[in-house]
Design goal:
- The structure is a homodimer.
- Helices cover 42% and strands 16% of the residues of chain A.
- By secondary structure, chain A is α/β, with parallel strands linked by helices.
- Chain A has 2 domains: 13-145 and 329-357, ATPase, nucleotide binding domain (Nucleotidyltransferase, domain 5, 2-Layer Sandwich); 150-327, ATPase, nucleotide binding domain (Nucleotidyltransferase, domain 5, 2-Layer Sandwich).
- A 5-stranded mixed β-sheet of chain A has the order 3-2-1-4-5, with helices on both faces.
- In chain A, a hairpin with a 3-residue loop joins strand 6 and strand 7.
- The A-B interface holds A 108, 171-174, 176-181, 191-192, 194-195, 198-199, 202-204, 224, 226-227, 230-231, 234, 239, 270-271, 274-275, 277-278 and B 108, 171-174, 176-181, 191-192, 194-195, 198-199, 202-204, 224, 226-227, 230-231, 234, 239, 270-271, 274-275, 277-278.
Chain lengths: 365, 365
């Protein structure tokens, strides 16, 4: 195996630890803008259902690995280090690795994919299978237990709907950021709430309790000060963090907050429906069942006003076969399962499980 | 007079030129983020109508004087230099100045105003009248020929409605930037057009000729590339520059472009109506006449689809007394006329002209 000593001594541990038998492993990575997580999972024999809990040997955490945010060199160093950490923690080294499945944000084109593949190949020998994907793919796999079929809706600071068919076609909708109309996202919801405060203040819009509630949280004494607060820091996450206040106001009966959440529901449902329609995920009669994996803070259950539940209700009016799934495992585990599934396929082992056989929480709308 | 030598030799010329008689002058400044303009105008006796053309002695141009953009020191140096240039060009010096009216963007609070007043006072002796205002005030005055009464609607990259009553009350609406919902602005129009391209591409929205027309202008081959283009540069003006393409598409019959412009019209009209309502500019019966000064690229006459005309039509349904004005003079002249008007008032000379007597283009809706 080619030895590399990037970061000084990233892989030095391999000389120092004894390898535990001939156990083979898969690395699953979920690389995001906030943090990067690597899971080391043993290759387990196919079983139905999956073993519960899944056999995870180790978990390592590092910082941002989105190359658009921190640059290519820093992103790669982070990814390499988190893989080495996970292997060290599991008592394995690179000779035990059968596959690496890296799902990372900022991978939008085949050129992004190829760049990362080339660099991963410098670390791992040719018999190791390498898979590089956008981070939405790991989110889907975390709900479908590694199978690429169905649609994933991610609604956190941003929002995106990503879909895959069994024959390998894919489509996405939304996910173009706040300037390009991600109204359903956490940022979109919060920005509309801030706008509603300004509109109530200058007479263009109705009075709303969003004004007092949000100004209090931000420590501002007047809507005038909101302008300075808004443009003082370009971070989208800082604005999206106000979503719980908007939900609380809607739950308290505020009409303006209610309408903002309703708009978000319609936008999120529309992005899923666009993907389902383009891929024909619902079958020819529009009634076929398909999994919808739902991920991100905006979709998590609220008390009375549950955005995720409303989105599913909305979608099921057009596509009654929607099977909403809230993943039981994290995206890095989804990535590892995805790698495991790819390996199975490539080695002509047992066929992948069908959509009815997933071991996951399926909540009917 | 106190002598100052900021910028090395800003005022050196005063020792070198002979002063032309005892002619007294007013300086009117329009300080913006793109450029700063200073007009030197002689004090002329009150006449009705105003002399046409107005007696302007000189005009000097400099760069940005918004202290939020370039910092306080650079902003002040720019303002001082452009005043010195205008005086030099007019053959006057500071001893001829009776009043300075400075209308500058970034002046939003009385603390901003006081800071600039204190510094202006270091340049000009105490008998010189000093007035500091937000730049919307000069825009209004450019339409009302120096009188602070009525409403000004500015729609360029951003948008704002600003209103004043004869007894000194004022109100504003919109003008809080793109995150806080300036949908009617040039940026708002163009961002909605870019969003429409993404929505048509991913199946969430109808097909529109905005796609081909805007991608061609930007030299992009696919809507996918629009995301990178949008976030590559945070300048709002770069996006707002696409407004003429949206107007051309609407004029060619594109429904999506038409609806975006229609939305802009409603938003701009709403911001004016909010100001008129709050200030009672329309009188008790809602039918009183009031001037509406219209400024900025978005409101300039287009061929078939005239946003400014549609805005006036919309407002006149609620307030039939609206008197739209497209200024014949630039805002710096408006500032000089404002200074002239303040002087008149303070010296108990002839009363200000009434709204029926302005020498300006009044176009009935």
């Amino acid at each position: 195996m080619k030895k590399r000593y990037r970061n000084g001594e990233t892989w030095d541990f391999e000389h120092e630890i004894g390898v535990l038998g001939d156990r083979e492993v898969i690395l699953g990575l979920d690389g995001g803008t906030t943090s990067t997580i690597c899971i080391c999972m043993p290759i387990f024999p196919f079983s139905d259902p999956f073993p519960d809990p899944l056999p995870v040997l180790s978990r390592a955490v590092a910082g941002c690995s989105n190359h658009n945010s921190v640059g290519e060199t820093a992103a790669r160093e982070t990814l390499e280090q988190v893989m080495a950490d996970a292997l060290l923690k599991s008592g394995s080294n690179r000779s035990a690795v059968r596959a690496v499945c890296l799902s990372v944000s900022g991978v939008n084109h085949s050129t992004d994919e190829l760049g990362i593949l080339n660099w991963l190949r410098e670390i791992f020998p040719t018999h190791v299978k390498l898979y590089v994907q956008n981070d939405a793919v790991a989110a889907l796999a975390s709900g479908t237990m590694g199978k690429l079929h169905g649609c994933v809706l991610i609604a956190g600071t941003g929002s995106i709907a990503f879909g895959f068919t069994e024959d390998g076609r894919q489509a996405r909708a939304a996910g173009a950021g706040p300037v390009l109309g991600d109204r359903g996202s956490g940022y979109g919801i919060a920005a509309q709430a801030l706008t509603a405060i300004i509109r109530a203040y200058d007479g263009r819009g109705p009075v709303t309790i969003l004004s007092s509630n949000i100004l209090q949280i931000l420590g501002l004494s007047s809507p005038d000060e909101l302008i300075g607060w808004t443009y003082a820091d370009p971070s989208w996450a800082r604005i999206a963090a106000l979503v719980p206040v908007v939900v609380a106001c809607a739950e308290a009966g505020d009409r303006v907050a209610h309408e903002i959440l309703q708009d978000s529901v319609e936008e999120l449902a529309l992005s899923v429906k666009a993907v389902v329609q383009r891929l024909g995920l619902c079958g020819e009669d529009g009634k076929g069942s398909f999994p919808l994996v739902m991920v991100g803070g905006v979709l998590e259950a609220n008390n009375k006003w549950d955005i995720g539940k409303e989105v599913v209700n909305h979608i099921s009016k057009s596509y009654p076969g929607v099977l909403p799934i809230r993943p039981k495992v994290e995206p890095a585990v989804g990535a590892a399962l995805l790698g495991w599934n790819f390996l199975l396929k490539e080695s002509h082992m047992e066929p992948c499980k069908t959509s009815e056989e997933w071991n996951c929480t399926v909540a009917r709308p």
